[in-house]
């Protein structure tokens, strides 16, 4: 009997970010909409929120375009509806205020 049964189970675990790992800009932007829509799991919600709180560049106008593109791709549409664009702007404005990126404060 000489069979190797050591099947690595790390595959799935390796794909997920380690619990408590800091959230990077890529991930934050990628999940920005899910975050403002509260679609994330509690842990991710906290990680993304913590990053957005400290990283003003994730809330720049150009990031809004990235979020928009991802949403459009996800919804299989060619263009984001104007209402969606307005809503994203509103949400990101709220996030900016919460993150304290305004001059006052
Ligand atoms: Zn960032």
Structure description:
- The chain has helices spanning 10-15, 25-30, 32-36, 42-54, 61-74, 82-99.
- The chain has one domain (22-99).
- The relative contact order is 0.12.
- The chain is mainly α.
- It is built from six helices and no strands.
- The longest helix has 18 residues, at 82-99.
- The N and C termini lie far apart (71 Å).
- Bound molecules: zinc ion.
- Zinc ion binds at residues 25, 28, 51, 55, 57-58.
Please tag this protein with its features.
about 100 residues, globular, binds zinc ion, mainly alpha
Short recap of the structure:
This is Mycothiol system anti-sigma-R factor. This protein has one domain.
Shape: globular
Tell me, rounded to a whole number, the average pLDDT: 77
Low-confidence stretches: none
How many domains is the backbone divided into? 1
How big is the Rg?
18 Å
Total count of helical runs of at least 4 residues: 6
Query: What ligand species are in this complex?
Result: zinc ion
Helical content, roughly?
55-70%
H/E series, N to C?
A: HHHHHH
In total, the number of strands is 0
Percentage of β-strand residues = under 5%
Pfam families: zf-HC2
Domain Putative zinc-finger: 25-58
Region (Disordered): 1-21
Protein name: Mycothiol system anti-sigma-R factor
């Amino acid at each position: 009997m000489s069979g190797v049964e050591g099947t690595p189970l790390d595959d799935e675990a390796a794909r997920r970010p380690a619990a408590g790992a800091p959230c990077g800009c890529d991930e934050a932007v990628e999940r920005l909409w899910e975050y403002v829509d509260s679609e994330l799991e509690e842990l991710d919600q906290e990680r993304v929120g913590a990053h957005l709180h400290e990283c003003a560049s994730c809330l720049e106008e150009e990031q809004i375009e990235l979020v928009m593109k991802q949403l459009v791709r996800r919804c299989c549409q060619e263009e984001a509806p104007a209402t969606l664009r307005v809503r994203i702007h509103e949400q990101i404005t709220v996030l900016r205020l919460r993150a304290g990126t305004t001059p006052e404060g």
